[in-house]
């Protein structure tokens, strides 16, 4: 019994940092004994050809940083970019050079003028779209198009603030971008997406990520209709009218789809059902669960759950105003027979209770091995959800519960937990309570982690991308 009630102490142990031993400072006498030739900067005295070769071996953004070493290194990195296939003027570049916008513009122009390669694989740009710089931005995009760029990543997020704070309008993409048929990856942030007429599409595009992009459902449908190779689609906090999503394309083979930051959209369920056959990774966060109902399907005679036959990873978030019944209904109406990994961004505390409980469906998760719940406080609603999942996941191996930085909250029924003297003690009592729950999988184990101890290996695929973009 004692072993059963023990928690993973390793997860809650605070490791003491290693203390590096400090070397005693050299005396003036020893300093004077160092030969003069050892003080020379021998690397800087090497011929330009060797220095160019050294710089060519490091990433573009690291090469930029060499300009601060000494005057000898100034400008050396620019010549090495003449034949590079990656032109990365993204966030890391802007931070490295740390220049005002007008000087940053001059630096980018100078690099592009010296480029002699016929093609480039990747072009990244992080730039504030102030009016005086718009002609430069258009020329840079045109440059990338002429070099038959394959990956284009344009981020127009204003530095340290928002477009609204600066009184700026969203940058409207130039027509030349939409005739760049070499693209396989297109990532856009903080801009306006208006398709020109005519638009022939991107025949080779496989990845489309839109973050805080203004786009109409009609433009999105037209885009998808003419991108037959698209496999990865992300719509994150995009500005979209309240018109219902319509999908005309019938031959889409999208394998990864993320939809986040929409409060109320019509017809999302029908849109999602048309993507279902090929989806392998799905993220839906900050969207009302009710919006995923397919109109007319629930009351159709002989209806059955809509299947996602190939889905292996689901990241589900629930916004305010939903109920536990709606969450249960989601799993009842949508079938995930091959699901292996489930991540839940936990339900807010003001989640509405529902006296109407959904009739328990006969489905089970036959292949679900990992469940992760973020912001787990141990409330009664959360315990109900945990119990529900334990009953349905017959092959479960690990359930990871991430405790937020706030303290554990408990329901009146679990008041004895709140009386514990420390957070570690409350964590132990919570773990004991979890062990009392019945579970279909005898191999299932609980892992309770503090938020700072979170493991990237169980993060959702789309969350890892979004965090790297915003960091």
Write the layout of secondary structure elements.
Layout: H1 9-12, H2 28-33, H3 48-56, H4 60-65, H5 76-80, E1 86-89, H6 91-97, H7 101-114, E2 122-126, H8 134-146, E3 151-155, H9 163-166, E4 171-172, E5 185-192, E6 207-214, H10 217-225, E7 232-236, E8 256-260, H11 268-275, E9 281-285, E10 306-307, E11 313-317, H12 324-333, E12 334-335, E13 341-345, E14 370-374, H13 380-392, E15 398-403, H14 415-418, H15 423-435, E16 445-450, H16 461-470
Parallel strand pairs: 1-2, 2-3, 3-5, 4-5, 5-6, 6-7, 7-8, 8-9, 9-11, 10-12, 11-13, 13-14, 14-15, 15-16
* Biggest beta-sheet profile: 14 strands, parallel
Structural class: alpha/beta
Shape: globular
Multimeric state = single chain
How much helical structure, as a percent, in the residues?
25-40%
Low-confidence spans: pLDDT under 50, at least 5 residues? 1-24, 464-471
Q: Using the CA coordinates, give the radius of gyration.
A: 27 Å
Distance between the termini: 45 Å
Find the count of extended strands (DSSP E, 2+ residues).
16
Total of DSSP H or I helical runs spanning 4+ residues = 16
Residues in β-strands, percent: 15-25%
Query: What is the residue-mean pLDDT, rounded to a whole number?
Result: 76
Biased composition (Basic and acidic residues): 1-13, 25-41
Region (Disordered): 1-41
Domain F-box: 40-86
Protein name: F-box/LRR-repeat protein 13-like protein
